[in-house]
Write a structure and sequence with these properties.
Elements: H1 16-47, H2 64-93, E1 100-107, E2 110-114, E3 120-122, E4 124-128, E5 132-139, E6 144-148, E7 153-157, E8 163-168, E9 173-179, E10 192-197, H3 199-208, H4 215-225, H5 228-231, E11 250-252, E12 258-260, H6 263-271, H7 294-306, H8 320-326
The chain binds dinuclear copper ion.
């Protein structure tokens, strides 16, 4: 019984220690002041209690030193918590460029996980040990939240946009996966497991899983089936701009501004073609809203990424900052 009573969840990623350190620091400061103030109240209540009926205490009329002390010390304490939290936040939500990508689609009430080579899983996520993994996440319906306590990571998945986070697992094992945002009747059942495996075991698992095509191949098939290929030609002779070497680059728009061609931009261009028109082109493209699933969109994005030399397959080229910024909650 006492053995099951665990104060902290397992710690299985390199980012976990920083979160715990912050937590313990804030807890320590809070306990110190809670105990200190309680004892002071008790002491003063006894020491300075009224001892006779006509006792009038001597009033104090301000003290600059005192005012400064109780302003500056709490200020520094609050700022140290803020800085500590910010450092951990940026570390956990800005993936290194060499991170392998795993795609998550939430749905009432399950987690759909897709690996770049096409392997799909539901409510289970297999990841290799000691390798940075970036999660690119969205949802088909309502807001969910992808929560892995052992990695000290949690982030909302939001309809209509991509949010990201990353981790590097450092302990082999099986860890809980939760939905941490109330999302309907079966919210409590929207749970699963994260399996951290030795690199060799992970490769064996990947190759042993049944799969048809990679995400890139599936994306290319969709690209042709939906007719994208008829306008977006590789040699730029089509009615739409070529998509070769576009991902991760700045795109000049008709209204004179530029935008970064990241996951969010491609998604928007597929579903709402009129919202950002590339300079020199007219709005001829129809919307594909309703014709392509969230998983299909991720596949098309994988394919478009593969057309760009600056974004190596499975790499995380320039896409991090905007996707990350958008998802702040
Ligand atoms: Cu999904 Cu709660």
């Amino acid at each position: 019984m006492a053995k099951d009573l665990q104060l902290f969840p397992d710690s299985a990623s390199i980012g976990a220690a920083g979160v715990d350190a912050n937590y313990l620091y804030i807890l320590g400061v809070s306990v110190f002041f809670a105990v200190g103030i309680s004892l002071a109240i008790l002491y003063f209540a006894l020491r300075y209690r009224r001892k006779s009926q006509d006792e009038i205490p001597k009033p104090i009329h301000g003290s600059l030193v005192l005012e400064l002390t109780w302003t500056i010390i709490p200020f520094l304490l609050a700022m140290s918590m803020f800085v500590g939290g910010t450092v951990v936040f940026f570390r956990n939500y800005h993936a290194p460029a060499n991170a392998m990508e795993v795609f998550i689609v939430g749905k009432q009430w399950m987690w759909k996980i897709q690996h770049p080579n096409g392997v799909r899983e539901i409510n289970e996520m297999h990841v290799p040990l000691n390798r940075p993994v970036k999660l690119i996440m969205t949802t088909e319906d309502v807001i969910h939240s992808y929560f892995i306590p052992a990695f000290r990571l949690k982030r909302d998945v939001v309809p209509g946009q991509y949010t990201t986070m990353w981790f590097q697992a450092n302990k082999v094992g099986k860890y809980h996966l939760f939905c941490a945002e109330y999302c309907g009747t079966q919210h409590s059942g929207m749970i699963g497991w994260v399996h951290v495996m030795e690199e060799a075991d992970y490769e064996a698992w990947l190759s042993g899983s049944i799969r048809g095509e990679t995400m890139q191949q599936a994306g290319e098939r969709l690209f042709n089936r939906l007719g994208c290929a008829t306008c977006h030609k590789a040699d730029n002779t089509g009615r739409g701009p070529t998509l070769v070497d576009v991902f991760g680059k700045a795109v000049k728009l008709q209204n004179g501004t530029t935008t970064l061609a990241d996951e969010a931009y491609i998604r928007e261009s597929v579903l709402k073609p009129a919202s950002k028109i590339v300079s020199g082109y007219a709005v001829e493209m129809p919307t594909f809203q309703g014709q392509i699933s969230e998983e299909g969109l991720l596949q098309v994005i994988s394919y478009i990424k593969s057309l760009s030399k600056s974004a190596p397959a499975g790499g995380a080229a320039a896409s991090e900052a905007p996707a990350g910024k958008k998802g702040g909650n």
